Every structure is written in structure tokens, then in C-alpha cells.
Amino acid sequence: MSNDKDKGAGAEDKAEVTATGSETATTESSTARPGTSPAAESRPGRKGGARKGEPKPERTASAAASGKEEPTVSKTTPTPAKSADTAARASSPARGQSAALLIATLAFLLSLGVGAALFYLWQQGEDVRTDQARQLERLTAELQARDERLARLDAGLGRETAGREELSTRIDTRLGTVEQGLTRLQDRTTRQERGWQLMEVKHLQRMAAHRLRLMDDPDGARRALAAADEILAELGDPRLLPVREAIAAEVQALEDMARPDIPGIALRLERLASELRPIPLKGQVPQDVGLGAEDRGLIAGDGADAEAPWWVQAYSEIRAALAEHISIRRHAEPIRGLPDAEVELFLRQLLTLRLEAARIAVLRRDDAEFQRHLDGATALLDEHFDAAAGAGLRERLQALKGVTLRPEPPDISGSFTLLDELEG
């Protein structure tokens, strides 16, 4: 903006100089005489000068300023004013030279200012361009560094992605292997568990047979078979249905099996042993030969009737008194020696031991021993004890001989054999 102001000032100065020159020229033309122009004399070859002997046209300052031509007016001055004109003509070139010098100085200063301003602006532009170049270089370096960093990041990301993909592939492979192993292990475990359950079923079947055959425990055998059937039901294998049907038939056979009342038989034998004391031995009961009904009643210990004759009553009282010390016996068989008290005690204890041994055989469910001891007790009763007095005991002993302590058990091995065939 300062340059524009300087240029405007220079233009105004030039216009002033032009106007001054025009005024000077007008003055000179007005003071010159016709036909004798000092300028023409001093500068005969100057452009725009008048020829000799021709009047020089004049323009006013206003005409010069407006660019229009005005008619030339020739003026004549009187001769006495020649010295003043000469002085004016002498001072006019000096003023023109001063103005030109001033204008030149101003123009030079203006050109210096403009040049300095242009140099300053150029220097500023160079600094700006240098700064911009530096910034551009810095930005370019930063962009290159960022590009390199991005390239490194891309490369690292690619490597990481590849590593992750490889790791994922390895993990998938290992997972597949683990799943296959788990599947095989599960199948093996399932097979082993099924095998263990079937082995448990077989063990229960063997236990049932053992309880039935060796321990004579049909209830325990039935419970063992029921437990085996529950395990087969948990397996849910339709191929094992025939085994379950066989087990059901065996359980039903065990429920229908005859079960003797072992405690009741033992108690009956114990009561029989307690009934031996009143039964007399053979030869201890007197025979009522030659006696009537009344005598037989007395011998039997019934006592005399109140309406009997006095002598009968007296005889009864005497016999009752003597019966405590004297006993009269009559035997149809040949008379043998009477057993003493020790022999009687021995026979009674022997019969009691036979019955007790039979009771123990009942508790042991031993049919052979039970029958043997019952036969021995019956033989002792028939040989040494009175037949009439021991008839009831003998009948009860014969009834016990018909009891089977250990009935024939059913066959419960069919389910075990069938299961073994299916699994084999």
C-alpha cells in the first residue's frame, strides 16, 4: 500500500512539473518578440521550436492541462522590460533544473523504497518458502515415518493374524483330537459300565443260587434276583428282555416254594420233651386180672364210690394207704427184673436227648438227622415205655416224620445261563 501511495505522489509531482513547464513556455512565448525567440536562438534544433522569422504558437496552462488547443496570442512587450525578461529567462531554467532534480531524487528514493519493499517482500517470500519447504520436508518425513510405521504395523498385524490362524487351526485340531478321545473314552466307559453292571447281575444270580442251595434261604435268593432285575431294567437293553422274563419266572417259583414252619416244629418237639415225665415205663402199670370194674378203678386211683359197700370203701382206703409203699403188678409176658431208678432216669433222659437232637436238626434244616432222631425216639418209646400211655406221643412223632424240612428248591440257573449266552 505504501508503494501505491509513492506512485501516486510521483504522478502528482510529474503533473506539477508539466504544468510548470507549460506556464514557463507560455511566459516565454508571451515575452518573446515576434521573430526573435531566445529559445530558438539558444536551441535551434529543439523539437517543437519555432522556425526563424515565424511566430511561436502559445497555449495556456488550462489548455495544456485539458489537452485542447487554444489560439495563439502574440503579445509585444515594450523594450524597456528586456532586462526583466532576461532575468526571468535566467531564473526559469534554474527552477526547472531544481524541479527535475527533485523529481529525480524523489523517483530515485521511490525506486529505492520500492526496491527495498520488493526485496523485503521477496526476502519474506523466500523465508516463507523456506519455512514451507522445511515444513513440507518435515511433513514428508513424518508421512514417510508413518507410512513405514503403518507398513510395520501391517506386517506385524499380518504375522499376528497368521499366527492366530495357525494357533486356531492347531487348537481346532487338538479339540478335534480331544473330542475323538473323549468319545472313545465315553464309549469305552459306557461299555465298561455296561460290562460292570452285567457282571453285577451275574454276581447277584450266583448269590441267589448260593442262598438257595447252600443256605436254604429262598427269601434271600428272591431278593437277589429282584436286585438283578432292577439293574437290567436300568440298562434298558431290549436284547436282555428274555433274561428278565427268566428272572421273573424264577422269582415266582421261589414265592410258590413250600416253606416249612421251622420255629413251630421246634416248639412242638420242645413240648413233646416236656410230656415224657408222666409216661411210665413198661411193667410199672399193674394188670387188673380177676378184678372188677371197681377194683380196676381203684387200681387206677379213682377212689371208692360213696354208695359202695363199707367193705369196699375200707379196702380202698387200705389199698390207697399201702399204694404209697406197695405196688401190685401183673404181666402177661414173662416177668423181668424191674428197672431201678437210675435205669428209668437214663431212659427218660435218652428219649429227651433224642427229641432235643431232632429239634436241633429242625433248626439246621437237616432232614436226614431229623428223621433219624425221630426214629430213635419212637423206638425208645415202643421198647421201654408203656404203649397205652405213650400212644399220643407216638402219634405226634409219626406226624412230624411226614414233615420235609428242606423241600426241593426250584431251578434258578436258567436266567444266568441265558445271560451268559447273550453276552458270549
From TrEMBL:
Residues 1-91 are annotated as: Disordered. The chain crosses the membrane at residues 99-122. The keyword Transmembrane applies. Residues 17-32 have a biased composition (Low complexity). Residues 1-16 have a biased composition (Basic and acidic residues). It comes from the Bacteria. The keyword NADP does not apply. Keywords: Membrane, Transmembrane, Transmembrane helix. Coiled coil: none annotated. This is Uroporphyrin-III C-methyltransferase.
